[in-house]
Design a protein that fits this description.
The protein has 7 helices and 3 strands. By secondary structure, the protein is an alpha+beta fold. It has one domain: Arc Repressor Mutant, subunit A. It has a 3-stranded antiparallel β-sheet with strand order 1-3-2. Strand 2 and strand 3 form a beta hairpin. The radius of gyration is 14 Å and the shape is globular. The mean pLDDT is about 90. One of its GO terms (biological process) is response to arsenic-containing substance.
Length: about 120
């Protein structure tokens, strides 16, 4: 992975927060991220597409819903960098994590946010 491209991808606050939330939760769908970040679906989807094109995320479809997770083939140094950012930015993510928590736990959240 090209380090300049990586840092360009992470230079946007929405992309950084999205990546760190996905890293923390293992997998999130677009609707969970729109609630967590209090942003519109088109904006979140655009930023997720950029993270995917940078090679940081992969997606999985479940019906009409798209779920994102860290790409499993990331170089070790990228995974370590993301882990370090997540640890160092715990308070940075607190408002977003509180928004996710208000949605309920994952099974309840998925039923509310991503009905089949």
């Amino acid at each position: 992975m090209d380090s300049v491209l990586l840092f360009k991808c992470l230079a946007d606050e929405t992309r950084l927060r999205s990546l760190l939330l996905i890293q923390r939760e293992s997998e999130l769908c677009v609707c969970e991220l729109t609630t967590a970040l209090n942003e519109s679906q088109p904006k979140i989807s655009r930023h997720l597409a950029q993270l995917r094109s940078c090679g940081l995320l992969q997606d999985r479809r479940e019906g009409i819903w798209v779920f994102y997770q860290l790409h499993p083939d990331l170089p070790r140094w990228v995974v370590e960098l993301i882990d370090l950012l997540a640890r160092e930015h715990e308070t940075y993510l607190q408002p977003n994590l509180a928004n996710l928590k208000n949605m309920g736990e994952r099974p309840q959240r998925r039923r509310t946010c991503c009905p089949a």
